Batch of 4 targets.
Target 1
Amino acid sequence: MKIYNKYIAAIALSLILASCKAPMATVIKDEMKENVPQNFNQEDQGDANNNSGTTPWRQFFTDPNLVALIETALKNNQELMITLQEIEIAKSGVLAKKGRLTPNVSAGIGAGVSKVGRYTSEGAGDATTEIEPGKEMPDPLGNFEGGLTANWEIDIWKKLRTEKDAAVAHYLSTVEGKNFVLSNLIEEVADNYYELLALDNQLDIIQQYTKLQQRALEISKIQKEAAAATELAVKKFEAELAKSKATEYNIRQEITEKENEINALCGRFPQPIVRSKGDFMSMIPQTVYTGIPSQLLANRPDIKQAELELKSSKLDVEAARKEFYPSLEISATLGLEAFKPSYLVKLPESMAASLVGELAGPLINKSAIKANFQTADARQIQALYEYDKTILNAYLDVANLMSKVKNIDQYYKLKSEETKALEQSIDIANQLFKNSRADYLEVLLNQRDALDAKMELVEAKQKQLSTVVDIYKSLGGGWK
């Protein structure tokens, strides 16, 4: 008998060892982070002591109306609220994984009745058993019980701890995801606010242009009566006046839509946006210090989110690999059990207890475990590519915006010079037209050029302000 027991033990041990053979995970290496350039371009050496991405947004934005809109958006924006719930979900996932490390203890009571055949081993045993002198076992036989049950998986391979660490990394990534949503939300509110101010100024310009066309039309009619101009000039000025009025209504519609875009970001129904349009053209963009690329990796929440997701996916692979190993589970019960409720209080006869330990591992048909492992391994590689893509896009965003800041500043200066020159030419053209020394086409073309230049100058100012906001966000600012 002892020999058979040795054989059985040897077979069981060999089966357990066979179940421990697990495939190897793909070894991934983060080369993108190691190869990030020292500077954003050859000309810029960066400033390691100044990085505007670390500036809190309340210090970066000084317009009180814009600050009020951002504060409203941070309280009411639906996308941000959704992200906050994702954090709560991830936090619950951590608690769930942590709970598996401790025994699961439950309490319960039960009652039942059973009748077995007389000519069975159990029935024959009950029939010949006397609980008390002269009292046979009742038939049918009742069963009343109550007590505690405990189940505990011993984390011998640290699989459960690995799963908990993966859940923690995922939770931290959702926190960084919230920071990224905050940064994007602040950028969107600021960009839309500056676009709204630009539309306000363009509306003023088109209204001024409409008045100018009205005066030009009146002059052309007077000159026609004096035989100094033709009906064609009058019609041309009438057409231009109608065109400018149509443009005004188009801009008004754009203003309404832009206001509602801001209201949507603020999580509220349509209402007027409080703003001061008079100071728009005199606004001076904030000075932005780019710092060095290594600071970008530390400041941008989307990069940190991708890095934490990569860490979580690596831990998921490790946990999936440990599913091939045998698991050790211990279960125990302690309580009272009797066939009559009155016997439950008779101690220690009614006491019942059990303690069972089980070591078991997968042996045949591991396809499900293999599939889970392969899925986790593929997601690990996918997370690496996502992390590399995030770093590359972040670097390119900053490099492009740095170039855009310089070019848009030069563009704005030249547009300012063009606008001044054309404004002076309008007065000259009108005076020549009054004295019949210039025809109506020269006046019209000059006024149109001046209008286009003014509208483009306003757009340039809006792009100048928005570009600074964009680079502030791209450097990791806005969420603090």
Target 2
Amino acid sequence: MSLLARAEQVARRVTDRLTDDGRRERLMRSLAAATSKPAVNVWRPSGLSLGGAGLAVMCAAFGEVFPGQEWEVTGHRQLTDVVAEIGSSHLDASLFTGMVGAAAAVSLSSADGTRYQGLSGHLDALMLPAMRRLAEDAPPGPHTYDVVHGMAGWAGYLRTRPRSSEVEGAARAVAHALARVLGDGEPHRMSRRRTRPGQAAETVVDCGLAHGAGGVLAALSLLETHFGFGDGEIACAIRRGGHWLAAQARTVDGQILWPDAVARDPAPADERPLHAGSWCHGSSGVARAVYLAGVAADEAGLRDLAVDAMRGHCRRYPELASPSVCHGLAGQVLLALAFAYDTREPVFVTAAGRLAERLHHRYRDGFPLGFREVEGDGGAEVDHPGLLRGAQGIALTLLAAHLGRPPRWGRLLLLW
């Protein structure tokens, strides 16, 4: 079976189960009983990570490839529920569980602005001024700035919108807020307390793409590349953030790797876990952030470091238990594709194809969704339908590997 056929098969399994209320309820009850994260794994119509908004994004992507096959109709039904929840509930401003993600789903379903124009305009009028206000008076804490919960995630939405003075004004305000995180030479605003088994609590700066400095750097770099602010403060912050993150890299057995986090006050013999894989915390995701900074700042040294790192990750594939986008094989496929699109180097093209085939062969017909998410290292196996941690994201990844071009939905992951 081809990658395209497998992608379509998984997408149809997902829509069959999620668009029937009874089947969705049974699936979500099963997930709640099996998962170690029941508070996180909750279906909401507005949810991008796990909900109707994510399903609408998947339907939009498949509708482009298979026009006239009810994908647009299914996606429209999900957006109807999204709008109903927006009108009846107070949603936070996050990308993957809140208002920004719901608006991103509408934008990505708009067929390049030819559909949902009134709804998109209404959401812009609601959200863009709010983004500016929040960016100018941002509360402290890493969740304010990261990709999953905070302002770095807004970059994905802003880059799906047509250029206008309102969009550019909001983007500039967000960029300045992110620049303040990186502008001091070390991203202390991303600091958090962490306790590891058998060790005392410590203050660390997360390096990763999803929750750490890597995500802030990627978001700021992509905003600069897309909007071209020409602002010295923003340019300086990108260079400083890129060099700070580059300085955290370590070479181990010929591979350039990053720790998942760096202690603010490291002990002399401080050793951090180093691993290549995963979008959310792994070295491949950090390498992508450094590369994007090199593009935005026009610094060959940053680009070369990132490319060298990713070459090593592609020659010696990381062993990833999960098939998902967030911390599994699908995320590694997308990262290899991102470097392949930009550099056209055979090592990345070959790796993307081989990793996609590995993902393809993890499919099991006996699983309700074809794939099972593995939580943590050797954790519970769960039937997860979502975009970040489940079958929606896997279907979209297989589709992207077949298409050979950057899909628009990948902007939400700050990949390109």
Target 3
Amino acid sequence: MGAPRLTRRDAASAIGGAGALLLTGGLAAAQTPPEPPVVDDDQATVEPTQVASGKDAFARITVPVTINGQGPFAFMVDTGANRSCISTELAKVLTLPDGGKVVVNTIMGRRSRNSVLVDRLQVGSRAQRRVKVPVLPFVGTDIDGLLAVDWLKGQRLILDMKRKQVSITASRRDTSTPDRVVVAARKRIGQLTIVDADLGQKSINAMIDSGAQLSIGNPTLRAMLDKRLEGKLEKVTMISVTGETFVGDMLYLPFLRLGGVQLGNVPVVFADLPVFGLWGLANKPALVLGMDLLAAFTVVSLDFGRSTVTFEIG
């Protein structure tokens, strides 16, 4: 049987024309310098958890989170960030104690942000204790915070779009089937970079970022495009959840392959962002895979223990 195919005819139907205002999330609070590991509850280290998921105004996945026993609050699941964050408004409402300044790497570079101290941050049956959480001024969205990959620690994150569920479980081995494709991946700053991806039979680096509304490519990837596609680029202005803006060029790629899955008509915004340099990908063809593309699958599972990503389309 040939590789599964998905066509993205309506992937950006809500975007509008050139110059539309778009929102991207995970790139906005991509990385913070590593700190000592947080302390988990005994239960959190052994028990899987599953929660019902929702969506924010831009169709990105949210889950209910409680803070110090209060809530639930809507946190966006952000696989493009290595550290969970909280909104300025929620930190004020909960009168959380000050945690001092922390450095956050955003789409436009390094930023100094305030932080707060959270005694217990819980998702389902899992909790983190005594956490220092960066505070971000979220703009144009109704989310209360970002839930990052600092929850995973060698485990498995399952984004089930079909059943509207998010699960964190133990790592396990997957096998490919006609409706399931397992893609080898490698870790980069705690995240996963898909190895088996290509554009026009040329290998590229693809990063899973459930916090980004649209997929974003770097200039090196753009240079690989057929020159005849340049005339089809449209200028767009993007704004991050923290209010930072940048201008990019959007194009519908006629063909992209992820593992054994072939994607057609994929919307991608090309921009020269500092975050690509942070990931060590400034001079390598790289693509951040946003929720517009991930939503084409029924289930996406990121296994941080086995360094694989599984895409299901059945």
Target 4
Amino acid sequence: MRSLKGLYQRALKNYPLGTQAVQAGILMGLGDQIAQNFIDNSKSIDFVRTMQFAGIGLCISGPATTTWYRVLDRYIGSKGHSVAIKKVACDQTFFAPSFLAVLLVTIGICQGKDIEGLKIKMANEYTEILTNNYKLWPMVQLVNFSLVPLHYQTLVVQSVALLWNSYVSYRTSLDKR
């Protein structure tokens, strides 16, 4: 187990963006599997959907959150409770709403929706998911930005997001039926 931890830490040090992108892809794919197996109670597993979620984590979520946390750290700072509060305020005011929009549009595209379908998806899902975002993420981010070193912040968020992604996967699959 120690060698696995050491391997992860070396990868994180040498390839921070790539390592965090891969972990986000794995955890988003796992979140979709949780949604399909335990929430949807699907009779058959949609592995294409799982791979799409994993791809979103790999190509969008991991790189975006990692880069965003670096930007916050550079321009706001890295230590102190007032710094953490400022980071949460920026994160929830700027990043969360725009990232959620990108996520929903990307999921809609993966579901084969056209422009009109994407507009309907956004109208039906955005407000509810963003409202639920504000019930969970400010507290998670306050702890994350206060206590967790920058290079582990994406891992913390993606770990909590395992359940969040299960919810998003389930919620965005409702209009497919």
